[in-house]
Amino acid sequence: MTTRDDAVRLDSDDPLRSLRDNFQLPTNVIYLDGNSLGALPVATSARVEQAMVQEWGTGLISSWNTAGWMQMPRLVGDKIARLIGARDDEVAVADSTSVNLFKVLTAAARMNGAKNPERRVILSERDNFPTDLYIASSVAEAHGLRLELIDAADIKDRLADQSDPAGLLMLTHVNYRTGAMHDMQAVTDCAHAAGAIAIWDLAHSAGAVEVDLNAADADFAVGCGYKYLNGGPGAPAFAWVHRRHVDSVSQPLSGWMGHVAPFDFTTDYRPAAGVAKFLCGSPAILAMAALDAGVDTLLAAHDFGGMPAIRAKSIALTDLFISLVSPICEQHGMNVVTPLDSRVRGSQVSLAHPDHGYPIVQALIERGVVGDFRATDILRFGFTPLYTRFVDVYDASEHLAAVLASGEWHDERFAVRSDVT
Q: Which of 92, 99, 199, 212 is deepest in the core (most CB within 10 A)?
């Protein structure tokens, strides 16, 4: 049995422990929702203030040149590239994950139509994040394709079925509800062997688990800036395109920032070279500045072992939480739905309660343990290795046990749904 003193000792031995100081965390709060919104980095306020007061306030429009505003999508993209197994000039930072997914899915659909028009299926996981499925449905409709949803366990068999072959495979690397993680390389290899294009959503993995897009030979990827990258609410997202495709594909949102020479102001659209063609409108500089500071919190781990060390701590944190809450769940009609095998688990642990998951989460939040709820029955807890401590994990499990044993979640105010759950 792990004791609180054991957890304190684990924290004292943690090589990443000093990185917690890079975040502004409220006292008396155990924040286990970084998989939904990362905590505020200490450096962000000053970085955004610099962009506002000095660059915008003093430099005014000249800052597009003197402060490097025009280069920010590429410069921040190069930083993110170091976290996801990409090279310099392969990542464009812009827009939202949904918009970027529309761009890369459309590019993939056009590429598929030119090379394999008989492949009419976009294949995805039934439990994928809904916005990904909404976007895929719109792309399928626009290109005369069909979106087919299957269970994760059936993906490889379905890809092998050539009677109605899939042209595109779109998956989220780490499932938003359960935290189950695909083997990116194995699944991508399977897709390619079947003649399909592999598109990955890294929203719940970039910055939390090791990702190597080039080693996996993926085709396209998108990801989120406000979860484990700590870029702030609504932070810009990113898109990646494999170099073998980037010069030949086209994306549907041909805005001026994706033009090879935007300030020539020509009436004809000529796409920029490389991934820059996946830009569209003007970059959101203040949001980009915050994301830049957020990504730096990940890069600060380089001297402490980088992403391998972050992943090792993620596994240790989630292993500990699972071991502590499993007996509690057994006593109270709950179960752990996140994979017990850390090799196929992201940096979260999800519990399921058949009827009362939402009020239980709300009772925990009132106690200062911040997780979230995902319909219809998921209590979700994210573990961000840069600032989550082992003692936080221990204390959170104790609060969960107390909430369930006392029945305090029965208070009717905990059942009132907020706009964001």
A: 92
394: number of Cβ within 10 Å: 22
Among 226, 373, 390, 394, the one annotated catalytic: 226
Q: How is the chain split among helix, strand and coil, in percent rounded to 5?
A: 50, 15, 35
Catalytic residue check, 226: yes
Residue type, 382: G
Give yes or no: 380 in active site. Answer: yes
φ, ψ of residue 403 to 5 degrees: the values are -60, -45
Beta bridge partners of 148: 123
With a CB cutoff of 8 Å and minimum separation 6, the contacts of 79 are 292, 295, 296, 299
Task: Considering the candidates 23, 31, 102, 129, report the single residue annotated as catalytic.
Answer: 129
pLDDT tens figures, 236-247: 999 999 999 999
For the chain, what is the largest distance between any 2 Cα atoms, rounded to a whole number of angstroms?
Answer: 70
Q: How many CB atoms lie within 10 A of CB 248?
A: 10
218 is written with which tokens?
Answer: 């993926």
The 10s digit of each residue's pLDDT in 136-164 is 999 999 999 999 999 999 999 999 999 99
- Please state the pTM of the whole predicted model: 0.96
For residues 41 and 45, give the distance between their C-alpha atoms in angstroms, rounded to a whole number: 8
Place of tokens 């299957």: 150
